[in-house]
Design brief:
With about 350 residues, the chain is α+β, with helices and mostly antiparallel strands. About 25% of the residues lie in helices and about 35% in strands. Helix 2 runs antiparallel to helix 3.
């Protein structure tokens, strides 16, 4: 009897507790706390740094103009040479023989010219005294003119042969440093075959092979600083030349930077060039604000009146260190969620600093 009484009492107590809680009463879900930022247009100046090497502004490829076996090589890579200095020689025997033949031909032509001249002078004298005819005089004159033309042709052959003999010596066309050698003693060099590369003394360039994106990301300011990777003071440089084509083997664009004329640099030295893009007005957001709509960039926008959020697609201009720039999709003054946006849903009301109460 006692246990039945206790069970009845417990049931009555449970019924009383259930009656105290209304069926329609629900616990209110707290607002999600997020961090936001107000969109503003800022002046953006990005910096880039690319490596390259020091090169002579003017270089020349030196080669023999005649073919032959190289008998002497008088300089090596790294040597400083002066204009007119002999760098190499080829065997001149063939050219000497050609010159001897040309000289002999010239002497024969000169002898024939002398005979033609004497014959014309004699016919001229006889014609003046009425002993010979006009036809004989004209014939002697024609023979003289032919002989004179033969002499001129033979003289040209001599000049050509003498020039070919001189070309058996390869000479420097300017003061500079030998930067490449492509032939050795004993090798048969063909006419116009590259033998030496000469870097002329004078202005120096920093040659940079930059990715195409460097040029399309913005306009580079013309106040570039170049530093030697081995150390030293920075050197002022300006953009001197930009290749109009892309190197198909490397996918890069060659840029030549004119170095300060007073800079003490060595050919082939590795350098790092640091440049800045011209400032441009951009709306920038931190990486944490990035969301996605069907794989496309988007951000969560807060309605300042209702406090609710919505996902909006944007167009990104470029990405930089810890930030990205927005080209389209946002307006100044709008509020963007930068933290706590991983589990948001469209229309959800959020709490954030500066929200209207």
């Amino acid at each position: 009897m006692r246990s039945l009484a206790i069970s009845a009492l417990a049931a009555a107590s449970l019924a009383g507790l259930t009656a105290c809680t209304p069926d329609d009463q629900q616990v209110e879900k707290p607002k999600r706390l997020v961090e936001t930022v107000q969109v503003k247009s800022l002046e953006s100046t990005d910096q880039i740094s690319i490596t390259g090497e020091v090169s002579a502004r003017v270089q020349s490829d030196l080669s023999f103009r005649v073919s032959g076996r190289i008998t002497e090589r008088l300089v090596d890579v790294g040597d400083h040479v002066s204009q007119g200095q002999i760098l190499a020689r080829i065997d001149p025997e063939e050219q000497k023989a050609d010159l001897q033949v040309a000289v002999a031909t010239l002497q024969s032509a000169e002898a024939q010219q002398m005979q033609a001249q004497q014959a014309f002078d004699r016919q001229q004298s006889l014609f003046n005294t009425g002993v010979t005819t006009r036809a004989a005089l004209d014939q002697a004159q024609e023979a003289l003119l032919t002989a004179q033309g033969t002499v001129q042709s033979a003289q040209a052959q001599v000049d050509t042969a003498r020039d070919a003999l001189e070309q058996t010596e390869l000479k420097a066309d300017a003061d500079g440093i030998i930067t490449a050698r492509n032939a050795e003693v004993g090798q048969v060099a063909q006419a116009a075959q590259l033998v030496f590369t000469l870097a002329h003394d004078g202005p120096r360039d920093a040659v940079i092979n930059a990715d195409e994106s460097v040029l399309i990301s913005g306009e580079i300011q013309n106040d570039i600083m170049v530093r030697m990777l081995s150390g030293g003071q920075p050197i002022k440089a300006t953009v001197r030349e930009v290749s109009p084509t892309i190197d198909t083997s490397s996918g890069t664009v060659r840029i030549k930077l004119a170095l300060d004329a007073n800079a003490d640099v060595r050919l082939g030295s590795a350098v790092a060039a640091t440049a800045r893009y011209k400032p441009k007005s951009m709306m920038q957001l931190p990486w944490s604000a990035m969301a996605s709509i069907s794989g496309q960039p988007a951000v969560w926008i807060v309605d300042p009146k209702a406090g609710s959020v919505s996902l909006r697609k944007i167009e990104v201009a470029d990405y930089s260190n810890e930030r990205f720039s927005v080209r389209a999709g946002l307006s100044e003054g709008e509020t963007v969620v930068t933290s706590g946006n991983k589990f948001l849903s469209a229309g959800e009301v959020v709490a954030y600093k500066g929200a209207a109460q």
